[in-house]
Amino acid sequence: MESDEPPDDAMEAATADLLHLGFLEIRSLTVPPPEAEPATALTRRRERASMIADICHQLPGLLAPQRRHQLADGLRYQWRTASATKREWLRSRWDHLNYDHRWLTEAAITERTTTGKHDRIDRPPV
């Protein structure tokens, strides 16, 4: 654990809670819409559900007992490779959970200016 990272148990709990919120939101986005809802709204709902699923799909693997030691690296990779929309979703859900994500979100700004294109920091954890 790097000095700026939160304790492992806090990081694991926040990741599990993030998954929970993601699943709930996907469920709410995929319920049958009212018949009066325009097709464009349905398309937006599907796109948002897909975006959330894309964010969440690797998180269970990072919580696996044999990979938990790589959780911080996995979250860093996910943050660095996320679009602005995905970052906003992550940030808003962590804020909702009262999770202090500055170790990740603020550190990424510094890393982007100090890390080369092919440095280890730009690769997903193995």
Automatic annotation (TrEMBL):
Source domain of life is Bacteria
The name this protein carries in UniProt is: Uncharacterized protein
What organism, scientifically named, is this protein from?
Micromonospora parathelypteridis
